[in-house]
Amino acid sequence: MKLSKRNFLKFNLLAFTTSATASLPTFARLHDEPQKWTGVYDVVIVGAGGAGLAGAVEAIKLGLSAIIVEKMPFSGGSSALCGGSFTVPQTSFQQAAGITDSPEKFIEDMLKVGKGKNDPELLKSYVVGAQKQLKFITEERGIKPYEVAVFAGMSVPRAHNFKPSEVLIDMTKYVTTNGVKIMYNTTAQRLIWNAKAKVVEGVECLTKDNKTIFLKAKKGILLASGGFARNKKLLEKYNPLMVAADPEGGMGNTGDGLLMAQELGADTRDMMYIKGTHGYRPSEPKFTTTFHGYYGGGILVDKNGHRFANEEQSYKLLADESLKLPNGISYLVFDEPIRQSRMKSRAVEKAYLSQLNNGKSVPWCFEASSLEEVAKKAGIDPKGLVNTVKKYNKDIETSGKDSVFGRTQLSAGYGKAVPLKTGPFYIYPVKPRLIATYCGLSINGKGEVLNVFGEPIPHLYAAGEVTGGVHGAAYMSGTAWGKAMAFGRIAVENMNK
Known about the structure:
Elements: H1 5-22, E1 39-46, H2 50-62, E2 66-69, E3 85-87, H3 92-96, H4 103-113, H5 120-140, E4 147-149, E5 159-161, H6 164-177, E6 181-183, E7 187-194, E8 199-206, E9 212-223, H7 232-238, E10 246-247, H8 256-263, E11 268-269, E12 277-280, E13 299-301, H9 315-323, E14 330-335, H10 336-345, H11 347-353, E15 366-368, H12 371-378, H13 382-398, E16 425-434, E17 440-441, E18 448-450, E19 456-462, H14 479-495
């Protein structure tokens, strides 16, 4: 054949097309199928946090064989470090407390908080999966929430608060006693694509003794590997502001599942909306409880005593604003009535706010009978704080609306803003930490991972922090743990259809 320019181009185009067709997706570094699989299961789950354990629960319910690979020496993931809020609408616990809620109200609130950037299809699936998991925890396993509370972004109380360790330990026990093996200290490294069947068929893993193993999934692989709060390179790539936040998420959250799926052409969502969590003590890195006293009426100020944001908005957005301040530190200012109300409404806050009873001093919160005095103790400008509070109080008392940032409520959609007038006064220094990344792989309502063309990647599913689309631009409290366990169940259920 004469190698004309036309024939040359045809020859190379044919070679490229043949090669691409044989090894979809074309741009991924894909492995040949191993000569021998180490194990064959219906479902292979990557990650033993809330999402992975919930997926294993669903596998058991459906009679499917499953295995979990977990790179850490223990289960729990970021779920073990969360505050324990599991946000679910329209539950028997809400009904018993006289709280009227609905899936429609939940979705409306979520879209409002997420600024319409979240996917309504995912929110509808979330409701079904979360209600199913709540019934499993409470009715089948007998673990009851100790309160139903209202937090950021909620128009009604719907955060069902548990001790996360109690739930996760019980779920781990349930899945292992029902035949699901958890391989600890085992890192998933690459997904294996079957070019002939055109499906994701397995996972290549590295064990703690440096042995490579290959696990085959006949029905599907569930990526439940967490986010990338501890991967500085990925944070710098997607949201450099978050590098300034102290990492608080699971030690294994380095983006493994995200990268493995991206190799196969997976799309991502909400990467620009990575958020820190406001409300941690900067002086006590081991204290992992947050304090959101602004949802009781407190205000946030900077070193000059000036407010810098509307305190009724999501604490994720407040974290963004706080990280722009020197060292990321802001100051929560509240008075005695607010302290009393928080102790009555939140058991976890009562445990440490009660330490301030009878004028007792603690190293993490400043207290004084006047604003000037408490400002001096906290090291912020007394005059600036006094002027700020004076103007704020006048606005709230005369019109019910703060004239600087437009605050009218305690939390978005809940309560009315209150003045700060009755001493003693308190200043609680706070700094954001990055406990989760709230973004990641694009999925549909079935939990299927989508490629850059919006098409499902066959046999590849994802749940939890490795996914995007649920939260959108901001975050409603308790929906991270909620989406993890909800979509863990949803994904495995759809593998079996």
